Input
Amino acid sequence: MAEKTIQIEIKRQSGPDASSTWEKFEIPWKPGMNVISAMMEIAANPVNASGQETTPIAYDSNCLEEICGSCAMVINGKARMACSALVDKLEQPIRVQPLTKFPVVRDLAVDRSVLFENLKAVQAWVPVDGTYDLGSGPRVFPQQQEVAYPLSNCISCCCCMEVCPQFNDATGFVGAATIAQVKLFNSHPSGKVLKEERLRALAGDGGVQECGFAQNCVQACPKQLPLTEAISDITRDVTLQVAKDFLRA
Amino acid sequence: MAAPKIIVVGGGLAGLAAVIKIAEAGGNVDLFSIVPVKRSHSVCAQGGINAAKDLKGEGDTTWKHFDDTIYGGDFLANQTPVKAMCEAAPAIIDLLDRMGVPFNRTPEGLLDFRRFGGTLYQRTAFAGATTGQQLLYALDEQVRRHESEGKVKKYEGWEFLSAVLDSNGVARGICAMNLRTMEVTTFAADAIIIATGGIGAIFGKSTNSVVCTGSAQAALYQQGAYYANGEFIQVHPTAIPGEDKLRLMSESARGEGGRVWVPRTVGDKRAAKAIPETERWYFLEEWYPKYGNLVPRDVATRAIHKVVYEHGLGIDGQPMVYLDLTHIDRATLNRKLEGILEIYQKFVGDDPREVPMKIFPGMHYTMGGLWVDFNQMTNIPGVFAAGEAEYQYHGANRLGANSLMSCIYGGFQTGPNAIAYAKALKAAPGDGGHAQELARQNDLNKQLVSSSGKENPFRIWRELGETMTKNVTVIRHNKNIQQADEKIVELMERYRNINLSDKSQWANTSFAFTRQLYNMLQISRVVAQGARLRDESRGAHYKPEFPDRNDEKFLKTTKASFAPDANEPRFEFEAVDTQHIPPRPRRYDAAS
Amino acid sequence: MATAARPDASQTSNPVGRGVEPLRAGKGNSFLLRKLHSLSGIVPIGAFLIEHLLSNFEALKGPLAYAEQVKFLNSLPLVRFLEVGLIFIPLAYHALYGVYIAMRGKANVIYYPWSGNWMYMMQRWTGYIAFVYIIQHVVRQRFMGVSLPEHPGAAFHKVQMELSNPWMLAVYVIAMIAVCWHFSYGIWLFAAKWGITPGANARRRFGYLCAVLGVVLAVMGLASIYAFVGPNYKNAPADVMPAQTMLYAPSSPGASLS
Output
């Protein structure tokens, strides 16, 4: 009896400066398989479709339940999380390649540290006085929480940046994720203290102005963050801040 | 005088909490993590975090929180640190709130609390169904702030290999491997804090993340640290089996009327909906007519295990049972359970409103861990531990929503303790053991690269996971545990014949994994043998041969130490601190 | 207090130090340039476009009415100054900076064929069309042939001659649609990006409004084109105001270009 198999093609690259090649695999199908489990299968039996021994695929992953943000890849042309990419719902051969806008470390693993640098640049935190006991936090009404919570769900997967036509080497655009975090912290009762600094940061080169409003970010976001709304709100705030600074200069 | 230099290994809640305290105290921190710290396993926690703030007018107190925790842990936890944690909890919630965690709110703008397992009080603060993620982000943001001020240096993409110990056995730093260049380096520090989480990976598939291998704890155990209560492993009754991992399915599915069943006939191949009512076995309802599907977690877990492994009635011969919601109308389901049903739909591909969910108990939490004193220091001077990696807050069973608190509280304690220790530390003799440790680790790497057997590390790992899950989780028979231990010894033997299909020295993930695998095998023996020795049933540890708790013999902490010559664990037992609450029988079915 | 026994070996080489650079927080002036580009598209260029389309609409009333309109416009005070300051300079800026913006984007509708992404690409393509079209339009209609400020009566005939070439007619029709598209989607983008319509619903509703505006403008524009090529005013005289005296001497530097 012929065993049911799946066809998967993976773009491989042994290092940042190496050239890339596509390698085909045929692996046994199992119910409920996702792209990650296909790669686990390859690791346990590293043989490609032509029967040659090969190496396990290098890729980033951790939680495998779409909350850590590690395993973003381009699967059949779309940036998405590999853990929630179910094999049975994908057209075969499944073509998997690394995110295209980030430097490849190896195979499917890429370096997304630019996002964390951007979060530093906009001071995406609440500057608490200290971690000693200072009593209750500020009152926050449920309506405010309902605005903050979705923004705080960003898993830093960088899909919004990958799909953005404006996020590239030429623009150095900061990307939707960081802008959403600015909205989050600017709306927090005490995070607000850094509001003006964050807005000025976002008026720098690569800031909010680079958005072309293609709205791919909001379509691609695996956590459905209201990204375009955040960009709208923050661009307005940045514009007002710049105008204010100009008039007061 | 230079500021003390502390190394924190692990960037989850406990590690980040420690980093913040050290940075605040003017210490100098290097933070090591395999993954970017924002991707740590703490993000997976859903339900909430416990603190007796009593904002619901129920008369909750920190003492009651303390009592629930000790009782829930079947009296195995040392009471002094647990009491201190419960007392500190309300202020920690306030702090997290000040850091911007988007906790759910009451109409008055105060923190909202809900009820969780093992208590009668609404004591659990929560941020939607992603509390762990929100807490981790809050701490991550504070650490990023300290990082941008130059107080913290992050080493993300580095794997801890071992502690650097001087000739007196005092920690002087760590040896770590860069997961891109594969270069091994030692880093000097006056104290090190291990906050590397649980050991789910030894069970193959668990609800844990990929990095939760326990490799760091196992490495330290092999360097002389005690590993305590390793046999206490929490298994959650309803997880979604997956090809790659197990994902949690919240208890609320059963709370809303979900029914657990299997086909009555072994090997019934029909689709669930094609099986008539008379040929379905609602075993929980049959065995526990009073509680039905809502028996406590450990009971439900044991029942499901029994049906699958003893009766052989798992769906399609697989370790799975049905959790059926299809008899409830869609509108109700969407109103009350939409979030979790979408998780199932996303990862399994079936609509649980139409098709019964396939679930199975999943290894979920490591109650045991590195032995620490009340200052969170292991028996190796200068090596501290915090969070799930250490053993001290949950005894024999962890209550829901206590883990997030124990991680943060543990980290907050450990940071200042490490600084105090470092300030009193005398200079190291010689080079502090750095050259020797570096050479040892490089030798290990060389051996691995030059090994030319035919064993695939991932297949050894699969076998380890299957063995551990089958024999050392829910229902434990000494005979089976013994077999599991023998199997692990066999796997360790085969490990010597390992074949790395990838011998390159750049971002070689299978190389790093293979190094972890050895440590996983070592710690698996600690878990298995610890379970073998404990001839009683307590909390998550259940032996049908010894169904009762035996306080006389086993109200004791299990302490495993590594015997290098025999290459196996040695065990000793330590009395438990029960000075505040005298042990009493743990019976959730009786009104107490 | 112990001292570090070994030098910190953290500075291991990391060859993966490339990729999109992080935000240059607070640095540079691209924000101002970009906002100026965005604003100039609405005011004055958008306002001028509407004026231009309304003026063209006069052509439907015939060559004389059209000439009157041209004459009226050229009679505005400081008209040459307005022409340079409010039309030529902003238009040149919007065009050149717009090309710069468009060239830096990397359209990806092949992979992500979502409506917003299509509109993003269309905005760039209509911009390129407008860029090329407007250059030839200004050169041929404003600075070549009969100078209309001095001879407003010749306006209808000049345009009619231009459109008598079917290729030119096609260019005008395509450009008319492209420009109206670019402008109306530009208004929508302006509202979205300046935070006037942050909500998804507001954006959708405003989108309908902009679409209606775009269609109205395009229909008006096409109707005026029809006025020149349709049967009503065939073979219009070369100048319907031969006796027209010049109201304004072409002495300003802007006009001397002609």
Summary: Chain A has eight helices and seven strands. Chain A has a mean pLDDT of 96.
